[in-house]
Amino acid sequence: MKLTQEKIQEIAQQLVTAEATREVLRPLTATHPNITLEDGYAVQSAWTAIKVAQGAAIVGHKIGLTSKAMQSQSVVDEPDYGVMLDDTLYEDGSSIQYDTFHAPRVEIELAFVLKQDLTGPRCTFLDVMRATEYICPAIEILNSRLQRIDSVTGQKRNIIDNICSNAGYGGLIMGGRPFMPTDDLDVAWIGGACLRNGEVEETGLSAGVLGHPAKAIAWLANKLAAHETKLKAGEILLSGSFIRPVAARPGDTFQAHFGRLGSVNCYFSPA
């Protein structure tokens, strides 16, 4: 860890303020060149603590960068993770005010809801399936209060910036037909299509998430075990997208189609 606790707390507060004022900050890797991956998670934890102190509640966790394509694009060799708060959940078919976010993008994935606690460090995807109450289709809204390209140096936002900004998480819409892990469905072979205004933008297969979405959940349980943290019964766990992110614009309607598992929908209201 390169940053002091005081600096970590200061950055976390800046991110909270930027969210409240809808300001966009320079990438932290540009303003703090010595910041490390460990610092990034420390900033995320401090940000979470501030939000919880303000009244938010943690409802789950998201996992990002679970596909080879996204890891290659971000020059990393493992996923990242963030927290989901109760004020970021939207009903299926919601009208969502566009400027709640900065340059939002949309991904489609599977959400796992736990019926029992899940603890590492030797958690496997079979443990995840046994601990899961149900799985359902989901849309994740990506968001960051950090510039994609630094306005001063031209430096691109990177994985550390993403982690500081809660792994790019902005919001979650769950819908479609929830299913049980015991149902006659191969969780690794679920297909999905992302439509923007009725046109297919991206398609993918859930096997793109580390070979099986439950493996992503197991990875998170094992990662958190090092911090003596466990995944709790009732939490929602986003396993990671199996498509590339699709940019959202004011007035766009999104539909995530999952075949016989139904669809999830949302609309980005211009005002």
What's the layout of helices and strands?
Layout: H1 5-21, H2 28-31, H3 37-53, E1 58-64, H4 68-74, E2 80-85, E3 89-90, E4 94-97, E5 105-114, H5 125-131, E6 132-142, H6 159-164, E7 169-174, E8 191-196, E9 199-205, H7 213-225, E10 236-238, E11 246-247, E12 253-257, E13 263-269
Parallel strand pairs: 1-10, 3-7, 4-13
Antiparallel strand pairs: 1-2, 5-6, 5-10, 5-11, 6-7, 8-9, 8-12, 12-13
Helix pairs in contact: 1-3, 5-7
Helical proportion, percent range = 25-40%
What is the global morphology? globular
**CATH hierarchy class name:** Alpha Beta
Mean pLDDT: 94
How many strands, what sense, and barrel or not for the largest sheet? 8 strands, mixed
Q: Which CATH architecture would you pick?
A: Alpha-Beta Complex
Q: What's the name of the CATH homologous superfamily?
A: Fumarylacetoacetase-like, C-terminal domain
Distance between termini? 42 Å
| Structural class based on helices, strands and sheet pairing | alpha+beta
Q: Count of DSSP helices?
A: 7
Unreliable segments of 5+ consecutive residues: none
Question: H/E series, N to C?
Answer: HHHEHEEEEHEHEEEHEEEE
Beta percentage is 25-35%
Reported by name, the CATH topology is: Fumarylacetoacetate hydrolase, domain 2
Radius of gyration: 18 Å
